[in-house]
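Fold sample X.
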Amino acid sequence: MPDPIRPQRGPQETALTSPADVVIFGGAAGGGKTFSLLLKPLQFVDIPTFSAVIFRRESPEITNPGSLWDESSRLYLDLGASPNRQLLEWRFPSGARVKFAHMQYEDDKLAWKSSQIPLVGFDQLESFTAGQFWYMLSRNRDPSGRVRSHVFGTCNPVPADDAVGGWLRELISWWIDPGTGLALEARAGAVRWLARAQDGDAVEWYDSAAAAAAARPGSQPKSFTFIPSRLSDNPILERADPGYRASLMLMPLVERERLLGGNWNVRPTAGKVFNRAWFPVVDAAPAEARRVRYWDKASVEGAGDYSAGVRMARAGGVYYVEDVVRDRWSALNRNRVMRQVAEADGPEVEVWVEQEGGSGGRESAEITVVELAGYSVRADRVSGAGSKLVRAGPLSAQSEAGNVRLVRAEWNEEYLRELHGFPDGRHDDQVDASSGAFAKLALDGPTEVGVLGQPAGPRRVILRL
């Protein structure tokens, strides 16, 4: 007989047994959030009329290896449920259903306007908009009356000014210490009641159902709770993957504070993504090293953004910023400078140039590649989905670990000033060029898609599009 499936004692058990209409669970990585979300429907799958829909913001987040679909297979198959991979749905022997769905765009919520869903689940609620959350709350009902309709959401921390999930930080603010950004342990799991103000959109809170009824006669406030969890609350995961905590410790400071520390206040500010104290200054990089020069281009002369070319070397696990060239050149002068810099660097230094989106970005990259014929030059197509902060993350982590050093030169101060001020500073061209150079050195060599004008060999010209 298989072992019974049950939550771990502590926050996971508290979340799954809470009487609140809306339960928000999590606030850090590794606390057993997704597993809890998949366990929640199992309380009701013996009821033929029961159904649940669990949302992720984008479809790949459901089917990626180790994501919701894979994890649900480990649980639901042993209970006799039948999968429908095309519909992303499980049907249990009683007839109960658990479905996974995405809600990538704001208007995707309208596809559910005629739905009646006894259990609505959100995995990573901070990635959804407030409009999506409140709309789906209106679809949360059980026409059979056999199940108490409720919402169960998991989350990771985001600050109040986050463009997408800041609303969630505001919604649970009573459970968060405003000074530290950490969850208040004394309030964990405490149930409160909320209702909309009669004369506006503000949410009004009450400490009991009786207080809500007295203040709002005739209204039906919803009960609500937030239950924090951290990796330390999930000993099963720590035993199964002892290296997971070490992986979180290697994340950049801001993400580490959020995902390991559960900090809802921390945000990328000056000195947190890059800190000038993290960069030792040395007289030279080792002669034996792989080297790249990465260009972040601008084309307005004398004003606006800068063009920047950062040469970086890697020797073992240490990265050296050897040279930075930066100015506001016209497109013509910039291309001349890039040629001169390539000549000075020598053919053994790989040259990369950021290719921006659209036909204009492709044409600009093609022109640069052609004009630098004779050197190993490649265009790097940067996905629009990846923000500057995301791209800077790996370099930030290695910098904090002391693995990135500067070669002493007159450009050091301006370079450190920009990195320390990122992302609040006026310019980020040196950050972008450094992130690009680091990525090329940290990863394996480029994928060769096509060759322009040169036969294969050490001085080939490759356009990566």
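Fold sample Y, listed below.
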Amino acid sequence: MKKIILIHGPNLNLLGERAKEHYGDVTLAKLEKIVTEEAEKLGVKIIAFQSNHEGGLIDFLQKNRKKADGIIINPGALAHYSYALHDALLDSQIPSVEVHLSDIGQREKWRRVSVTAPACKKIISGKKIEGYLEALHYLNKTQ
């Protein structure tokens, strides 16, 4: 069975409560449930993780990279400055897709550039939960 790592960065544990105009009102638990249910239909297992700490995300990625066939990552604000996370994605040597619930191209100037995106095969921004499902289908097809 294929396995895909689903990683959520800082503050995503507060989905459904924070900045609903940007991120919607779906909680992290609900988002993971939707992605997991879609993955099961495709015969894919999801390994989900969230941390507010850059090192926690990197440790999880390094520990699980050999167990997975792909990565869906929403690095949150780390997308805009974490070269360490960028390197961890590259070092994983498995295809990854960066997903953002909001359209980072329409946000504050500092949010418009992702330093982690070049380590990914694809970036999906502004499609809310549909972006995660698109990433799942993309990774399922590329394997």
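Sample Y note: The beta strands are 2-8, 44-50, 70-74, 96-100, 122-125.
Also: Residues 103 and 126 are 4 Å apart (CA to CA).
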